[in-house]
Amino acid sequence: MRTHPLARRAAPASPVGFGAGTTGGGGASAVTVSTLAAFTSAVTDAGSKVVRVNGLITLDGQVDVGSNTTVLGVGSSSGFKGGGLRLKNVTNVVIRNLDISKPPAPADGVEVQRSTKVWIDHNSFSADRSHDQDHFKGSLVGHSDKNSAEDTGHLRVTYHHNLFSDVYSRIPSLRFGTGHFYDNHVTGAETAVHSRMGAQMLVENNVFRNTKVAVTTSRSSDVDGFANLRGSDLGGAATEISRTGSFTSPPYGYTAEPASTVVASVAAGAGAGKL
Q1: What are phi and psi of 34, to 5 degrees?
Q2: How many CB atoms lie within 10 A of CB 255?
Q3: Computed over its alpha carbons, how large is the radius of gyration of the chain?
Q4: How many other CB atoms are found less than 10 A from the CB of residue 155?
């Protein structure tokens, strides 16, 4: 298989972003799974583990992933459909090179609650737009408007070099926290990045196609968030930024490639079997 010359640049050897220091399962011996039962058994405890998903596993809702875990897609069509992964009260988790599709409500493709040191990169998220909104949400961070006391000052997330295809909304939806969304390819969304409940989002050098609203801070009855948008190719998408944020310089080193190369770079590196 030919490797696009941008693939190497798009795949850092160590986490870039707020997930720096994340090792997942580290050097633990890898276990390869191809069934739901085997996957659930492999990821639930808190010991160090590397779980390689070979093939497409049908989920029933969400599967909880334990601390100190790497979940890695292998092969050309590996990952999950019909559900998603939940990271709740965990730390040190890597989720990489998976195809994640069609999670029904209340599941998201990946949901993060009260967790730290999480690295989610080079994944392909897709949904089922032929049904209703219970089938096509992406990634929710901060699960409730009433969770301010618990989440404020603790939720810090980075998304880069992911593909979101026909995911209706929550790309991501962030409450209370701080988020950096850069070098992602979003296509077929109704509402992509949503900053809410005072969250701060920096949206940088992404590509949006066939998307109605690229960035919004005000699409809910809750409190507006804040957003800064720069360097992105909106492809005709609208923006609804009611409040410009103060988060303009992430506290870590990174290099955001220009939007002009993002589509090729993400195609080369995101999804199962790519890296």
Answers
A1: -140, 5
A2: 9
A3: 17
A4: 23
Tell me what pLDDT residue 156 has. 85
pTM, to two decimals: 0.82
Strands (E), the chain: 30-33, 49-64, 69-88, 91-96, 99-101, 110-113, 116-121, 124-126, 140-141, 156-160, 163-165, 173-175, 178-182, 185-187, 191-196, 200-204, 207-209, 213-216, 226-230, 238-240
Distance separating alpha carbons of residues 28 and 68, to the nearest angstrom = 10
Contact (CB, 8 A) for 271 and 121: no
Structure confidence at residue 10 (pLDDT):
43
The domain defined by 148-275 carries CATH number 1.10.3720.10: no
- The rounded distance, in Å, linking the Cα atoms of 28 and 167 is 33
User: What are the residue boundaries of the structural domains of the chain, listed by start?
Assistant: 22-121, 148-275
Specify the residue for token string 């659930």: 40
Q: In the chain, which stretches have pLDDT less than 70?
A: 1-14, 105-107, 128-138, 143, 145-146, 148-151, 272-273, 275
**pLDDT for res 200:** 95
Render the burial of 138-147: b for 16+ CB within 10 Å, e for the rest. Answer: bbbbbbeeeb
Alpha-carbon gap, residue 160 to 148, rounded angstroms: 26
Catalytic residue among 52, 86, 156, 170: 170
| 196 included as an active-site residue | no
